[in-house]
Amino acid sequence: MPGALALRRKGEHMKPASSAYRPDTPAAIESPRADTRPPVPSVADAATLIAHLSAIGGTRRIMLLQGPVGPFFADLHTQLLRGGFAVERIVFNPADRLFLRKGQVTRITGGANVWQDWLRESLAVSPPEAIILFGSNRPPHACARAVAAEYGITVISLEEGYLRSGYITCEIGGNNQHSPFAQWRFRRHLQIVPPARSQPLPAVRSSILTMSLWGAIHYLVRDLLSKHTDEALFHRGKDRITTLTGRWCAHAARRLVARGVELPARRRVQATKDYILVPLQVPTDSQLLVAARGWTSAALIEACLQALVRADAPQRLVFKLHPLDTSGARMRRVILQRLDELKIGRDQVQVLETGRMADLVRHATGMVVINSTSAFSALHHNVPVLVLGEAVYRHDTVVTIGETPQDIGAFFRTRQTKPRPLIDAFLADLKAESLLAGDFYIASGRKVAAAGIIAKLDQLRSADHGGPCA
Predict the structure, then answer these.
(1) DSSP category for residue 163
(2) Is the pTM of this model over 0.85?
(3) CB 173 within 8 A of CB 180
(4) Beta-ladder partners of 86
(5) Which residues contact residue 6 at a Cβ distance below 8 angstroms, ignoring those fewer than 6 apart?
(6) Which of 405, 387, 406 has its CA nearest to residue 396?
(7) Backbone dihedral angles phi then psi of residue 127, each to the nearest 5 degrees
(8) Is the N or C terminus of the chain more exposed, i.e. has fewer CB atoms within 10 Å?
(9) Rounded to 5 degrees, what are φ and ψ at 367?
(10) Per-residue confidence (pLDDT) for residue 31, from 0 to 100
């Protein structure tokens, strides 16, 4: 088993319940749990134990794993305590301790086996009502989802809102390709009885700047103070502090300059309605790493440019760089170099670093994505979408599904929107079942989001089912 493990409470060494653990090795887990535990029940008994605790009015226990950067999980922790919940917070590195509230905290370090063994024992002995986490693809969270499924424990998975701004995503089991909504089917009765819809938080401005600030603080603390044994459960690679700081400063400066420099180009683009929009994603995005069906941003760019060369009729392309992609300048150079090599006129291709996605989508005749959430903006504006990777919206009733570069060429030749009633039904279901009002980064939005999550916990308990957050 990689990594060493011991339990510690306020400096007092305690004997772990499982013989798999070695207390004579450096500490890997710190926990305020009592050193005497009841016999471990079987996996089949875990769900029964939860029901028994609920029936006798036992304290409702919640386990919190990693949240979004910033203080949101601290706010959620506080509201859960005020609501009468017992909360156990799991932290995997020093950055997870930022904004931490007082209470039961368990520090995990080491590889996936250390975390998996500890979690399996914990869920068997004292199963929580639910595990709440942010980002279902993060290594510790993927492990937690698998172990929780063994024990019948509900996992509430949070993510950036599929629709922005004013929404967060809240689903049972996972998000994106792991979402229950990935199995969505059109239900004809919705034409008669539309579902209740979540209403977005009103007047929420873009929280990208706030998120970037929290992110910078989080990753600086993580990379400066983490142990070597923490790195096995990082969901993003570690950078040198000077390199990371310099890259983000240069990126912020470049975007600030681009706002002015690109203004004429943005106006020219938005004055026409004859281009295909290609939103690019951050190369380290977990959706690209685990759910792209083999596609990368570089492969997408090349396939789109080749399709442009082979198009029967003149076409125009607009590549939109992701606002958080610090490699955007290099990506722009690659695109411009390929234009020259393929003898494509600069008037046929525009690369934009700035500009609101909604403004760009409104004037497009089509969108090609791997699995970017920008597709939701296209669906809202009735713009045809070609999706290549795994995504929650990968349904042939609402988008065109592609696999190969040839599919991109076919989309360039012929594209049409799917039936509007199907798209409307999909978006209505999504809002009703997978979204909550709120924001993870702006203070007013955090309060609303935390209250919404607690309300969903109450609804799930009342309904006693495992469907998506409704």
Answers:
(1) S
(2) no
(3) yes
(4) 61
(5) 13, 16, 21, 22, 23, 24, 25, 26, 27, 28, 29
(6) 387
(7) -65, 135
(8) N
(9) -140, 135
(10) 46
Residue 105 structure tokens: 């905290």
Instruction: Tell me the two tokens of residue 155.
Output: 């996992």
- 273-419 falls under which CATH superfamily? Glycogen Phosphorylase B; (3.40.50.2000)
Closest Cα partner for 86 from 64, 119, 115, 56?
64
Determine the Cα–Cα distance for residues 315 and 300; give it in Å rounded to an integer: 17
Which residues of the chain have a pLDDT value below 70?
1-58, 187-206, 240-242, 244, 464-470
Domain 7-206+440-463 annotated CATH 1.10.3330.10: no
pLDDT given for residue 58 in this prediction: 59
Instruction: Sketch the domain layout of the chain as residue ranges.
Output: 7-206+440-463, 273-419
| Same fold across 7-206+440-463 and 273-419 | yes
Residue in 7, 83, 161 with CA at minimum distance from that of residue 451: 83
**Three-state SS at 208:** helix
358, 327 in Cβ contact below 8 A? no
DSSP H or E segment with residue 243? helix 241-261
CA dihedral (20, 24, 30, 32) in degrees, to 10, reads 90
Please check whether residue 137 is in contact with residue 371, taking contact to mean a CB–CB distance below 8 angstroms.
no
Contact 171, 469 (CB under 8 A): yes
At 83 the three-state DSSP class reads coil
Task: Please tell me the distance from the alpha carbon of residue 111 to that of residue 229, in angstroms, as a whole number.
Answer: 7
CB 338 within 8 Å of CB 301 = yes
Chain length of the chain: 470
Joined tokens for residue 97: 């301790």
